[in-house]
Structures are given as C-alpha cells and as structure tokens.
Design goal:
heterodimer, A: mainly beta, Rossmann fold, 3 domains, 16-stranded antiparallel β-sheet, ten-stranded mixed β-sheet, 12% helix, 33% strand, globular, B: alpha+beta, three-stranded antiparallel β-sheet, 3 helices, 16% strand
Amino acid sequence: MSSPCAGRRRPAKTWASLDESCQLITILGYGDRLSAQPGETIEFKISVEDDQANFSADVVRLTSTDEAAAGPGLRESVIASLGVFPAFKQVTYSGSHAVIPADPVLDGLDSFRVSILVWATKPGGTVQGLFAKYQDGCPTGWVLALDEAGEAAFLVGGAVVATSGRPILPRCWTRVAVSVDAPTGTVTLVQQPLAPWPLAHRPIRVQRHVEGVQLPCPGVPLVIAGWHLGAANGRYAARGVFNGKLARPRLWAGAAEDLGTDPAVSVAPMGSWDFGRGIDTNEIEDTSGHNRHGRTRNLPTRAVTGPDWTGKTLAWTEAPHEYDAIWFHDDDLDDCGWRTDVTYQLPANIASGVYALRCTTATGTERIPFFVRPRRGTTTSHLAVLMPTATYIVYGNQHAAYDEPLDEMMRGRLTTLDSVDLYLNEHRELGLSSYDTHADGSGVFYVSRHRPILNMRPLARQWNFNVDMHIVAWLEARGTPYDILTDEDLEQDGAELLRPYRCVIACCHPEYWSAHMLAALMVWRDEGGRLMYLGGNGFYWRISFHPTRPGIIEARRTEGSRSWHVDPGERHHAFDGAAGGLWRFQKPTPYAVVGVGMNSEGFDRCGWYRRLPGSFDGRASWIFAGVGDDERIGDFGLCGGGAAGWETDRMDVQLGTPPHALLLATSEGLSRYYELVVEELAFTLPAFSADETDWVRADMVFFETPHGGAVFSVGSIAWSGSLPWNGFDNNVARITGNVLDRFLDPRPLEPPV
Amino acid sequence: MSYGPKYRIQPSDRELAWQFWVDPFVDPSPDMMRLLNRLRWGSMSGKHVLVRSEIPGEWILARLGERRGDPVVLIGPTFRDLREAERHVFALRWKATTGEDLGFAR
C-alpha cells in the first residue's frame, strides 16, 4: 500500500549531532520552594549550559501550558520583569557518601587499621572508595577501596599498593580490612566473605611492603563510600562513590599483623560508626567515645538490612541494630546546591495562582513553575485547586522512556523523546525519579525538588503538571475564581489549610500521599467539604516527607504496580518508620477516600464514558444536566483522544467505597493494552485485559459525606485533558461544571435517608 | 537474572504483519499482540526511538546509545506521521529478527 502521509523528505543527510536537528536545553534552574505566600521570597538557581553571557528573567502567570494543536496553547502574562543577570554554568555533584570531619589526631595518624563490612552491588569498572582519608589528586593520603576489577584494594596517594587478587562477591557481606605500619611500609589487606557458601568463604590475606609510604593528609575529612573531592558552595563532594551497602566502619591506631578476626573485640577503636543509630537522620554516630560523629551527603538509603538481619522483624524501628547498614549510590542526589542567581519577593497583593520564573537567553528559555497560595489564614475563593506537588517531585526527571525495556510495550507505540529526555539521559547528575533504578539496579527510594525538575515544565510532555493545567485553563475560561494550594502546604498546615474552602479539586493524578496529608483531607471532607477528584490512580502510594528537610520524599514500592522491587526486610520508610506501599492495603484506602481505586493503565489511547442507572438517580441527575441519556461522554480529548484512560480507577464497596455511592458512568473503548494491575490479582491469568473483562474500567462515582459534603470522582487521568476540547464547550466540561457549581453552592448535599 | 522474549515468529505471522501495516494503531488481537511484543521487546542498547525535531510535528528516527546515559544517535529518516514511523521500524525489526525483508509497499 502507499503511504497516505509521505512526510517531509529531506535530502540525504548524515545525522551527526542532535543540536543540528533538535531544540536542546541550554538553560535550566530551580527555586528553593515550589509554594510561596505573598510577601515571601523565592531564590532561583540558574545554570546556562552554553556560552551565553547573560539571561533575562521575568515572572509570568500561567493559565495554560499545552502546546497541542487542538489545545488552548501556552498562555502566560508577564507580571514582573526582573532584569538581566550574568550567566554561569553550575555544577552538580551527585553520589552519596558520609563525611567525618578532620581533626589533629586523625591528621597525624600514620600507622592504623581499618575494617568495614561491604555488600557491593556494582563492583568493578571503576575504583570505588570504601573508607578514605584522601583528597582527589593529592600525592598523599589513603583509600580502602574496590578497584576496577572489583577486588579489595588499598591506595596511597591515588596509586594502588595492594589488592586482594579476587573480585568481591556481589551482594554478599564481606569484611574488608587493612593494616598499615608506616615505619616498615607494611600493608596487610584482608577480604573475608561472611556468607556460608563453601567456595566464597575462603578469606584472602595479602601483605605488601611499600617504600616511603606517605599517609597523612591533613585537613582532609574521613570519607565513607568514596573519597574527598572538595567543597563548593558549602557542600562536600566525593569522587569514587561506592555502590552498595556498608556497615560497621572502624578505625584503630597502630598496625596489627592479624586481621583475620575483627580486632574491635579486643582493642578500643579511635572511631566506630554504628549506622543502626540515627536511621531517620543524616547523622552517623561514633560510638567509640571519641565523638567523631559524621554526616551523610546526598541522602544514601538508611533503614536497610545489615549483616546480622535475622528476618524476625520487617520493621527497622523494632530492631534498629539489625538495620545497621547504609546503601550508597553513585547517582544519589538530595540537592544540587547551586548558588542563587535571582531572588524574587512576591508582592503583597499577588493573586494566588500558577506562576513561573521565565529565564531567556538567545538560545533557550526556561520556565520554572511555582505556586502562590493565599497568605496563611486567608482565602480569595471558595474553591481551592490542590496541585499534587508530591507527585510532581516523585516523577521528577523520570528516565523510564530510554532506560526501561518494557516501556514501548506498555505504551503500544514507539518511544518518543523530546528535549527534556535528551538532556536528562546524558545528565544523570540531576538525580533520578522514584520510577527509576539506580545504576546498580536498586530502586530509588528518595526524591528531591532541590534540583531542576525538567518534566514539570510548561510545554513538556502531557503528564501531571501540564494535564493539571487543563483544569486551571478551564477555570480561567469559565471565570471561576480559585486559590492554588500544594501538597506541601497540606503537609505543613493540615486540615486548617482546607477548612475555609467549600470545594477542593484534586487534580489529574494525585498519586502520592503522606499519612498527614490524607488525614487532613479526610477531616476536611467529613466536616462537610466537597471534593472533586478529576483524575485517576490517586491516593495510591504512601509517602513520607523528610523530617527536617522540606521537599524531600521517601516512597518504598513494596507492592502494587511498580517499576522495581524492595529488597526483603526493607519496606519501612527511614524517614518515619511507616510501612511503605499502597494505601489500598493500609487505612484509609483510596476507595474510602474518593470511592474508587486504581485498577488499570494503558497508554495507546483513551476511551469514553457511558451513563449508568446511577446517573439518573435524583441524588445525582443534576450532574448530567445538558447531557443526553445515551451520549458518549468524552470521546475526544488531548490525552489519548478520550476522557477515560491512561490510568483508571473503579469502585469497590468491599475495599471501602461507601455503600451509598452512586455509580454514575463507566468507561468504554479501552484497548487490549489496558490490563488489570497486579494488586487486583491473586493469581495471574490470561484474561485480564480491557477487551476481555469489565474489571478493567474507569468508574465515575458520586457520594455524599457528613455535614452536607460530597465527593465526585471520575477515575481517569485523561478526564482533564478533555476539558479544553472545542473551546471548553463539551460534555466533559459540562459535567465538571455542573458538579463544581453545585459544590460551591453552600446548600448541603443531603445523603439518602 | 535477565529475561527476554522467547516467541519465534512463524510464517503465518506475515498476515498479522499486514494487518499492522494497514493500520499500526489498530487494536491488536492476542496473536498480533504476541508478535508485536516479540518485536518491541528488544535490548535498550541501540533500540529505535523517535526524537522530536526542532520542526513542529516532525519526528526523527534515532537509536539509543550502547550503555545507560550514552547519547541518543539520530539516524533518520524523518516522519510527520507516527503511523509511518511505526511501519518503518516494524520493517526494520522484522528484517533483523527473521532475516527476511517484509516487502510491503509503502
């Protein structure tokens, strides 16, 4: 057959570089907060990647961010021009490690012993530091390491002086120790597997004599899981970052011939760090009595099983001594630590809304979104839109499209990459999303907003932020006043944040909820609040915010639809001890909160809804005013061409849907790519795609709550993508508008008698 | 432990290939899904992807790098219709997997 669309043909060409053919990212940045109140100041950190000398900055209000041909387009209005600023390329140092400050005793140490327990996840390829007092490039100083072959090694002044001669076994606890006698130049190195496997158990002990060994490295800190690179902007950086778990690092003064057994039992160490203490902190505690306490950098993973984990408990809080290990990764990042380039104090009269700092050079534009909430204790509307910033952070800088082999199969379409993908693929130092795996294959537990989050940008891919902006665009189009709130506001303020509002809109994909956020929402809802859940796969994962550092989130994916597995015994969050996983298996379930819960996903295209008997019930028929009895609802849209899809929810009374909930409509037209999610299944069976079972569907649900409140849920991410269709004149917008108008009406919504 | 596809493409799959060729976005039958999964489930090293061109509405055929983080390599051609891109890559993968040209006219 002949192609109906030959496409624009170019002459034969050598595709040598991306920058000839694609719009590449040349400027990027982030703010020190996502949400701010009038009068507060936001500090923005900007990096210009090319040779531009300056950038201009202004503040714009965003009311639409969709570039789709059928969409409302980018709508931004300048509210402040901040001027021209000198441009710099800023550097990010990723890779987690621990730092123990230098002191005169450590600086003067020339003969010593070191022991550390090692569980390596990516040995070989590069030199990875285990325990070091060495600054990169110095002629003196030492590193106990795994070398390029994955063998235990000892380096002096950056040069290997001893190796074990055998690669360490991956994921097998192994004691690595070294004794150094400076006067004689004797270096004794031990590599001793602790596992009971017959072939692995044989310990290795090698001894070398090194002439003129120069060990002191004054002023340089001890580093665990790497070696010192330097400090910039008040932040330490390491090189040679180790991948895997480490436990029980110990340091003794003086050399010893016999390193076959742990000398800690007989000789008091100069430093002995117990990673089972302070698991919910960034501290590492020295229990030797010398108070050589240290700090972790770039958030290595705590609350992981240690060498003596018995399995008698799955919660580190019950046996922290069994969780005395830290998992380091060379791609961990908690904060880029860039210097501030632009500060912006919000005017006292700035309206609540979605804004961005727009930075422009001759070669590129960066828009850094931020959200302005009303001043605490005030409102400007009866309606609040809760922007799911926790979800934005967790998805931040997702790499799945080019890292995940099954991505194309899930989407049923060729993988498509844009400028964000091209940049992130080559710039792993900007940190990963919680959907990614670390370079060693382990899941990413911690995510941070203290970095550019390039997939939360106007004009970027239709997902999360840009779909949520369809709701904002729709409110603007119909002239409905609204306040903007964020997940972090809810985490900080609790139910007080929501109390003044009659109606709250939860956006297209509010997937990540802390216990505190969810409790606050439920309190407000049951006091008479009206909740519009205009999304799918919401209220799904339990998260914990870092106890002292805002903007950092932990999520352990222990069950459900997930992109990696949690290792045995590691399901509990380090930040607060909570069991990670799905709210479906905890309390409250999403069904109890909004009447529906996640049941499927598919990304080839979306379907539509068909009304069910519940939509004709007098309690809810007003929702469908202006909509025909047999009318397809949302067989159009900017998200996959329909209102039902991408990720879908269904109602289930057994799982918590209130028994009086009305099933108003359900989806049709989902393809075979929509399969039942794993948490719905007790067994896997070949009968669970949308073309075979009505178990896979998006349900539209309504129910009343105490004190005149109510909940309306659509159970589909794509719903909001249909709002702008045909100039916001369509049956999805009509239904949504009917609900919104009634929910803003102070008259109580009476439940059935 | 690594895992991958095991289905061996059969001569009778050419009929399914033709159905895909007529409309790459057709809802796949179970048999067609098995064929598509076989062709799509490749190594990430050198996998075909589409990259958005600086020209609106245009996509460039590209391959992922050899290792994680390696640059994406543009190989062309360009497409303005994603169905045509699907056909093009389908034919490349069919050839690579079976050793035979698909031979369907564009």
